[in-house]
Design brief:
single chain; 316 residues; mainly alpha; NCS2; membrane
Length: 316
Amino acid sequence: MWTVCGILTVTDVFTAGHPARTDLKVNIIEDAPWFRVPYPGQWGVPTVSVAGVLGMLAGVLACTVESISYYPTTARMCGAPPPPLHAINRGLGTEGLGTMLAGLWGSGNGTNTFGENVGAIGVTKVGSRRVVQWAAALMVLQGVVGKLGAVFIIIPQPIVGGLFCVMFGMISAFGLSALQYVNLNSSRNLYIIGFSLFFPLVLTRWMSAHSGRISTGLEALDAVLQVLLSTSILVGGVIGCLLDNLIPGTDEERGLEAWAQEMSLEAAGVSEHGDTYDFPVGMSYIRRWKWTTYLPFMPTYEAGKFSALFKRKKDS
């Protein structure tokens, strides 16, 4: 489609200023340097404020909820078993480390699971780690070679929009597929599903159009509420969770029995599906070291073992 847009631009089918023209942002390539090595503190000393910290914490909370929902979805797309607790812990910890490094480098953004990449796995049916590793190397190269990164920036917006339609459509479809465990003939479940899907769309749209309406007298609290209420997946998840637990219903009707069997999160590092989430190298050493069973991000983690140490001290 990028090539088609280029042909239509050369033949002047697209008028000047049309968003699909490929020469709309060519000046970005011309202005971008050939090589530039980013380094920590390149924009000066970081500034810290209560409002900024609380606002980012709210964003981190919202991203955490999104990531936890993406992990099982990605596993299903790849035909892998549900991620165990240590894999989820490791994923969230890595995102936190990435956000910290982004702050040091002054990139102006945090790091979390990218929904478009999850959708790309569903479209391409490619879930190999090698693809992620090569993509990471390519992004590092783009960050150092300025003109290479600028080439991808000039992709026409309609093409990006088309990609988003396909990818987010796949994400939505895989998310809705989880409802197969729920009794969809129940009016209780239909009400919860409908309200949890529609209300967040309305609220987040209203929040974006009236960003200054929340005024509690505390700037930091206003920023936190603005971020939380503008995240549709967080609002929908909280509302769905509250309604599902407040409105009476049987475990079978709610789909808890079938879901527990299908998507149970095994805490033990070594299980029948443990190899999927093991480290690619060094597992022989990790299994020998007993102290790794206390770390919640290691494949050999045993739930409750770390807290048991404190219970023993208290009892003694």
